[in-house]
Amino acid sequence: MLLSRKGILAVAAVIDVALHSKDKPVSAKALASRYSLPPRHLEPVLQALVHEGILRGLRGPRGGYELGRDQQQITAAEILRAAGTVDDNGDGDQLPAAGLIGDVVLPAMAQAERAFASALDEISVDYLVRRARARAS
After folding, report:
1. 95 has pLDDT over 80
2. Rounded distance, CA 50 to CA 48, Å?
3. Within 10 A of 21 (CB to CB), how many other CB atoms are there?
């Protein structure tokens, strides 16, 4: 996989918040519980998503997370860029093979990775060398 574990978790978290925050914010504890993770694994990712305006964090006893803007305006690419600002220490935990991550996020990201790999197949070393030489001229 080309995508980091934190990136996949970030995409899943945003989808989860979009699905579950209609009536009230989604707590980090509820998110972590749904993915069988300690909340400390998700907190840095959630904070990065808040920092980028993808999620909005609400404090207090009924606090949690909701989308920072309309879901049609949020792309997987920007979620992954936000997650890229978080250290991915791996934490040794496997991602769930079922549920939202296994059934929705991983297949969609695998499709994107295949498209990316296909685009990379079109870039030869010869092409890159010619571009480097043209730059040097």
Report:
1. no
2. 5
3. 17
